[in-house]
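Archive entry: two folds, one per protein. Generate the first.
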Amino acid sequence: MFGCAGAVGDPLRAAQKALQNNSSESHTMTPSTSVNRRDVLRYGAATAAVVSGVAGAQMLATPAAGKDPRDFELEYRGKRIRGVHVGAQEVRSLARGRSRSHEVWINDRKLSVMEVDLPGATIGFISAINHYQPVLIDTDRNRGGLLELTKRAVDVLGDTELTALAGVGHEHGS
């Protein structure tokens, strides 16, 4: 039918012969046990479509490698806000080196986020806008900390926009 008798035809003929040989009453095939190329192609194509659809849905539902599920990108009070988390293990290892921290953007302008030492050997985070309101950011109780910090900054900004200097980081204590 499709010019692939050697590749597809032989297994189909073998399956048909097996069904014929297993029939106890007669050697003729009944409509309920017949297997033809059209059925194999139709059900094979349907199976392939379902399997590929399920696999595609799983890939879309699975976070990309390196992307933190706490990351966000949304609109808040008329401003587009975005936050990218550094992994919890990486924050602990970088805390003293202060080489990288979580990142925040408001209307595509970066807002500097800095680590500060809090009592009890805890690391808090502040931004260039809300220096006196540190938040905790972790994967447990404070998983929404970066979003909270960003929303606080938007609340302070009101209708104004960030300047280019808002993304310049600096150190706080050690």
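Generate the second and append.
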Amino acid sequence: MLPTLYIPSLFFDLDGVWAASPTADLLSTGIAYAALYWYFRSIKSRHYPKH
């Protein structure tokens, strides 16, 4: 997530720093959601095998 905070500040100065924080938060939320979705699908397939 650090590149998400660093790169916009190079192009947009202080405005890039302010915009990068919510962007990094949304990106980390999306990654966490995808990881949890994958994890719970794998648990479901282990506990409830298809017949």
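Annotation attached to the second fold: The mean pLDDT is 84. Helices lie at 2-47.
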